[in-house]
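Bench notes, afternoon.
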Amino acid sequence: RNLTDEEREQVAGFFQKYYEGFVAKVAKGRKLSVERVKEIAEGHFYSGGDGKALGLVDEIGGLMTALAIAKQRAGFAANEEIEIIEIPRNKGLFNFGSRLSPLPTHVSEDAMLQYLKMMSARPGQPLPMMMPGTYPDIE
């Protein structure tokens, strides 16, 4: 069935509340005003370089760069070996839905493999969008 007007308003309210919270966190974390974040955000996608120029990112890099910076800030030597513990353990790319539905969501490994193949076949291309709250739980 289609959503009722009341249900549409509830969904819109959820997204607005989520967006406002996200903007507030970005503003606080980036030491920018909420107005500035809204001015440069509003659904825009930026390259890493543009994001850095706008103050949205500190460094350009991947996981290894992030780990090197974290090690340095924690006072570890660059060549010192560290153990990375993921808490709670990442439940995988397809563990979405838990924030939106009280029912468990299960997708087979084949679907994950299929998704990863699709992504690797299109390097550098735009990524499929995911609704807020549907991305994997990695917190």
